[in-house]
Every structure is written in structure tokens, then in C-alpha cells.
Design brief:
Helix content of chain A: 40-55%
GO molecular function, one term (chain B): protein-folding chaperone binding
Order of helices and strands of chain B: HHHHHHHHHH
Strand order of the largest sheet of chain A: 1-2-3
CATH architecture of chain A: Alpha-Beta Complex
Distance between the termini of chain A: 90 Å
CATH architecture of the largest domain in chain B: Orthogonal Bundle
CATH topology of chain A: Sufe protein. Chain: A
Structural class of chain A: alpha+beta
Family (chain B): Belongs to the HscB family.
Number of strands of chain B: 0
Shape of chain A: elongated
CATH class of the largest domain in chain B: Mainly Alpha
Largest sheet of chain A: 3 strands, antiparallel
CATH class of chain A: Alpha Beta
Keywords (chain B): Chaperone, Coiled coil
CATH superfamily of the largest domain in chain B: DnaJ domain
Number of domains of chain A: 1
Number of helices of chain A: 6
Largest sheet of chain B: none
Radius of gyration of chain B: 22 Å
Protein name (chain B): J domain-containing protein
Structural class of chain B: mainly alpha
Number of domains of chain B: 3
Oligomer: heterodimer
Organism (chain B): Hermetia illucens
Number of strands of chain A: 3
Radius of gyration of chain A: 21 Å
Mean pLDDT of chain A: 87
Number of helices of chain B: 10
Strand content of chain B: under 5%
């Protein structure tokens, strides 16, 4: 009798352990998610500021990433605002950290795979790092357009 | 150990068991499905094979399936292996259309679970137990997809070979800006206006669902795709508002 009970107890314990979600975020993601770097906005009308606005339709995420560039083509500030999942927030937070201090040419070379590697993103979340790369590219493109416009005026 | 498992499963699934447990043989189980579900089998598509396995061979008695029943062998009555390519609509004996009656879907869900739930197979062979587990989880998955308009719409698009992209290519800037601003509005919301924001987005979603139904009726899948993308953004906005409302203490 007591043996059956013990067996049942064990069974329910095992069930409970098995019911824990199988996918955990890596600590790097959690760190950026809980303490996001560079959240906020820069003045988008400033000609030295480039704004990238991108989204992931499949999950309804929206991400804004802005860079401020000095006269030597160096990125002196970066800000982001992301409404989306933890991985998207962490990816954009990391992206702003990485582009700061880089030249625009260096920033152009930043790859989503680097972000995914640093954050140890699982395959289903790879598109979040892709989104961050798109955001950087969009911000750089916006900055270049603004500069050309300013030069031609 | 075996006994312990049986005890465990029967307890968790008692509500689903009902009177079908007495129907041991297959033909009466099938009959139960037919009669309990609105009576006329032909209208419900139960005369058709609703999840084509025609020509497949029963793992137990090697009888060839006549394609009448996707779950049980017509000869020996054993529960067949899961057809993973199974179409969710066919599984539920519904036509592949966006319009569906939610009550009918729920009734059908209960019908299916009452014949396929693992609780019914605790004394059966290992293979049938595994099959029942797989069928049952497929039935759950299908229900989850079909019962939510956005997910149902996305599933229909998938069947047309259209998927909602993960990248940025299909979005226009204006819409993204609008969503950014709406989310910022939520961020700055207070206890006084958060529920108002929730109401607004829920109305938008309701209107979009009506429009989606019309678009699907016209079989305009490309248009449906763009509306579904909008709806996904509104759904994620709605979630953000709800989370915020809880944090503000505006709802319990």
C-alpha cells in the first residue's frame, strides 16, 4: 500500500520536473533584458542622427535604433527602443553597445550572427538578431541620406 | 509502476471520459461519434475520409484501410498511427474555410478527445497508448490554432503556401511609426486611461476580424496576409496594454 503511494508520489514528482519549459534564455539575454543599455531616443531631426525603424511581422515586434555620428564619421551615441520579446530587446541593446565608438564603416560590417552568438540565441529566435542588424543598416542608410541632403543644400 | 501511471492519468482526465468508456469496440465508438455530433454523418463529412489514409495498412492486422476512418482500423479496431500531415480542418471534419462555428468546433473537440484521449488506452497495447497520446496532442494543437481567428487565418495562408515573413520587407514605415507611437503611448499610460487604450485596441481587433472574414470569403490571400500582419501587431499591442494594466493595478 505504502509502496504504491510512494510510487505515485515519485510519478507526480517526475511529471512536475518534466513540465518545466525546455528552453531557457541564456544569461546574456536575461542580463540585457533586465538591464537594457541605451534605451531612449535621439532627436530624429538632427542631421547627425540616423534613425532605423524595423519590424518583425511574424511576431508583431517593432524596433527603433538611432545613432549619432560626429564629423569624423564615428558613432558617438546610440539609443534604441524595442517593443517585442526578450530576445529582440536584448539584441537591440547589445547592438547599440557594439556600434558605439565604431566608425560607420565598421558598424556596417556588424553581422546578426555575431549578435546571435554572443546572446546564444536558439534557432527560433535568430530572426531577432536579424532585426537588430536590419535596424543598424536602416539607421546608417538614414544617416547617409541626411548627410547627402545636407551637402546638396 | 504501471498501476501508478494508470491512476495518474485517469484522475487528470476524468472529466473527459464520460460514458464513452463503456463503448469498448470500435464500431460503437464510431457510431457514438456520428450520432452525438449533430446526427447526420454526411453533413459532417464523416462519410468522407477526413484525414486521408486511404491505402495504408493497419499495423496490427495488416488490413488495408478503406479510407473511411482515420483513427481506427475498420477490421480489428486498433488505433492507427498518427498521420502527421493531417489537415487540421479535416481532422475536425470542417471545410477549409475561415468561417466556422466556434460552438461546433468545441463540440467536435470534446468528441474527438473522448475517443482519443490517453485515458482510454491505459489497458491497451503500448503502440495504441503512444498513438493515442499523439492523436490527442494533435487534436489539442489543431484546436488551439483553429479557435483563434488570427492563427486560423495564418494556417489557411500556410496551406496556400503563403507565410508571414519574419523580416522587415513587407512593412511600410508609416505603419511601423504608428505602432511605435501606440506602444509609447502605452508606456506613458496611467491607471486612468489604460483601460480606455485597451478598449480601443480590442475594438480595432474586432473590426479587423470582421474584415478578415470578408477577405477570406473573396479568397484574396495576399490582402489577407497584410491584414493578418496588422492584426498581429495589434495583438502584441493588446498584450503590452494588459501587462501594463496589471502593473498599474487597473485590473486584477
Amino acid at each position: 500500500m505504502s509502496l504504491t503511494r510512494a510510487g505515485r508520489l515519485l510519478q507526480s514528482r517526475i511529471k512536475r520536473i518534466q513540465s518545466v519549459p525546455a528552453v531557457f534564455y541564456h544569461e546574456n539575454v536575461v542580463e540585457h533584458y533586465e538591464n537594457p543599455r541605451n534605451v531612449g531616443s535621439l532627436d530624429k531631426k538632427d542631421k547627425n542622427v540616423g534613425t532605423g525603424l524595423v519590424g518583425a511581422p511574424a511576431c508583431g515586434d517593432v524596433m527603433k535604433l538611432q545613432i549619432k555620428v560626429d564629423e569624423n564619421g564615428k558613432i558617438i551615441d546610440a539609443k534604441f527602443k524595442t517593443f517585442g520579446c526578450g530576445s529582440a530587446i536584448a539584441s537591440s541593446s547589445l547592438a547599440t553597445e557594439w556600434v558605439k565608438g565604431k566608425t560607420i564603416d565598421e558598424a556596417q560590417k556588424l553581422k546578426n550572427t555575431d549578435i546571435a552568438k554572443e546572446l546564444r540565441l536558439p534557432p527560433v529566435k535568430l530572426h531577432c538578431s536579424m532585426l537588430a542588424e536590419d535596424a543598424i543598416k536602416a539607421a546608417l542608410a538614414d544617416y547617409k541620406v541626411k548627410q547627402q541632403k545636407a551637402a546638396s543644400e | 509502476m504501471r498501476k501508478a501511471i494508470a491512476l495518474f492519468t485517469t484522475q487528470s482526465g476524468r472529466r473527459l471520459v464520460r460514458n464513452i468508456s463503456s463503448l469498448e469496440n470500435v464500431s460503437s465508438r464510431r457510431e457514438y461519434l456520428n450520432t452525438k455530433f449533430h446526427g447526420t454523418p454526411s453533413r459532417l463529412g464523416l462519410n468522407r475520409s477526413y484525414c486521408e489514409i486511404q491505402g495504408s495498412i493497419c499495423w496490427n492486422c495488416q488490413a488495408k484501410s478503406e479510407g473511411k476512418d482515420q483513427f481506427f482500423c475498420g477490421k480489428c479496431g486498433s488505433l492507427q498511427d498518427v498521420n502527421s500531415k493531417c489537415d487540421y480542418f479535416k481532422l475536425y471534419s470542417l471545410s477549409n474555410s475561415f468561417n466556422l462555428n466556434p460552438t461546433e468546433l468545441t463540440t467536435r473537440f470534446r468528441q474527438l478527445q473522448s475517443t482519443l484521449h490517453p485515458d482510454k488506452y491505459s489497458n491497451k497495447s503500448k503502440r495504441e497508448q503512444t498513438n493515442s497520446l499523439e492523436w490527442s496532442s494533435l487534436v489539442n494543437k489543431a484546436y488551439k490554432t483553429l479557435s483563434v481567428p488570427i492563427d486560423r487565418g495564418e494556417y489557411l495562408l500556410q496551406q496556400q503556401g503563403i507565410s508571414i515573413p519574419e523580416d522587415n520587407s513587407t512593412l511600410d514605415k508609416e505603419f511601423l511609426m504608428e505602432m511605435m507611437e501606440k506602444n509609447e503611448e502605452v508606456e506613458e499610460a496611467t491607471k486612468d486611461n489604460i483601460l480606455e487604450l485597451l478598449q480601443t485596441v480590442q475594438n480595432e481587433l474586432k473590426e479587423a476580424a470582421v474584415e478578415l472574414e470578408e477577405i477570406f470569403n473573396q479568397n484574396d490571400f495576399e490582402k489577407a496576409k497584410f491584414l493578418l500582419i496588422r492584426m498581429k501587431y495589434f495583438r502584441s499591442l493588446e498584450k503590452n496594454i494588459k501587462d501594463k494594466a496589471v502593473r498599474l493595478g487597473a485590473v486584477k
